C-alpha cells in the first residue's frame, strides 16, 4: 500500500526516522547499486545481457543518461524483468552511442521504475524508442508514453509512470524530482553560488558593445530578436548587486576584496551602452527643462527605463563610490521629478513628439521611480529626492490603493521595497501599515501544500518564475522592515523560505539542463515556467535580487 507522501513524511519509525526518510535512503542505496552496475557495464567489466526476443511489457524500465558539457545528454534504455538487467541493457545501449570522451567526463543520471503492472500498449507492439526533450525523456511503446518528468504534452495517451531519478554529482548522488533536486538548498553559501551562476549567465550574453542577449530559448539554442531597455537597466542593477555580495562575502571571511570585479564591470558596460545610445535631454532642448532621460524608441521616454538606469547607477555606487557619475544621477533624478504631478502621480511617458490625451496608469513605473529617488536620497541627502519619493508613495497609498480590500491589492513589489527604504529614512507609520497589508496579501496567496511538490511556494498555478521572484523581493523588504520595527516576521519568513526554494527550481543547472542542446550556455539562467525554457534577462534579474536579499537576511545584513 502506498501512503500519501505528506503522511509518510510524518509517520515515525523506530530510531526517530520518518517513513519518507527511510524510503529515500533505501532508494538512494538502490540507485547507487544500479549506477555501479551501469559503470561496470560501460567499462566492459560485466558480461553483456541479451535483450528479450519479444518486445513485451516487462516490469523494470531504466533510462540511463550520460551528461555532456556542450551537447544534450546521451541516452540509453533498458527494459527487463529485473532492474539490474534493465540497467545493464541501458548501459549497453548507451555505450553504443557515447564516445570515449563522453564516458571519461560525463556523469550518469538514472531514472528507474519497477512495478508489477506497467500500462499495456494499444494495438500491435512497436519497437522501443527514446525521445529526449528539454524537460526529460519519453519512453514510447506503441501508443503509450512513460514520462519521467512532466512534459505537459497533449499527445500523451497514458498515465505517466512514476520514476525514481538520481544523478551523480561531485558531492555524491542527488535525488531529482521533475528534473530538479528534490530539496532546494537555500543556505547562504548555495544562494550566493546560484546568484553568481545567474551573473555568469548574464555576462556570457553581454556583447562587446554592452547589449545583452535579451531572450534565449534554451530548448532550441536560439536567441529571440526582441529588446527592452527597462529590463536592460534592471539586469545592469542585478550585476552590481552580485558584485557587492561577492565583495562582502570576501570581507566576511577575512579575505581581501578580489581585484577582479567582473560583475561590476559588466554592469558598467551595460550602463555605458544605455547612456551612450539612448540618453537624451528635453524635447527640442527646451530651455525651461533640465534633465536627462532614456529614450526607448526615438520618440518616447519610459519612466521605468530612466528610473531603473538611475537605480542601477546607485547600486554601482554602493560597490565602488567612484563607479557612478553623481551629476548624471542627479540629471536622471530630475527627469523623474519632471514626470511627477502635483498630486504625486508619475506620468509614465515623456513624448518627443506633440502628444495630447491622458496617459494610462503604469503598474510598475511609479514604484520603480520612488525606489530610485529613495536610493538617490541616500547618496545625495541634500537634494529634493526624498520629498518627491514620499509624495509618490502617498499617492499610491491614498489614491491608487485607497479602499481596495487587502487580498485584492496589486502585489506591487517595487512599492513594498520602496516603503521599506522610506520607513528607514522617515519612520512614517502609514508606510509601515501599507507594507504590512501588501506583505500579508502576498502570504495569503501562496500555495503552501500541494500533491505536486514542485508547486509548493507558487502564487500561480502552474508556477511561474518571474512573479514568484518579484514577490520574493517584496518579502525580503517586508522582513527587513519587520525586524527593524520589531514586528513579528515569522509568517513572512516562512513564506519567503518556500518562495526561495521554488525559485531555485527554475534555475538551469548542470543537473537540470542535461537534455538541452547547449547546457553550457543555459546554465545559471532562470526559465519562465517548468515547460517554458526561454530565459529572459529580467527573469534572471528578479530571481538574483530576491535570492541575494534572502541570503542577506540569513546573514543578518541589510540588502
UniProtKB/TrEMBL annotation:
Q: Which UniProt keywords apply?
A: Signal
Q: Which domain of life, per UniProt?
A: Bacteria
Q: Which GO terms describe its biological process?
A: carbohydrate metabolic process
Enumerate the InterPro entries for this protein.
6-hairpin_glycosidase_sf
Keyword Signal among record annotations: yes
On whether Signal is a keyword of this UniProt record, the answer is: yes
| Span of the signal peptide | 1-20
The protein, known as: Squalene cyclase C-terminal domain-containing protein
UniProt organism field: Blastopirellula marina
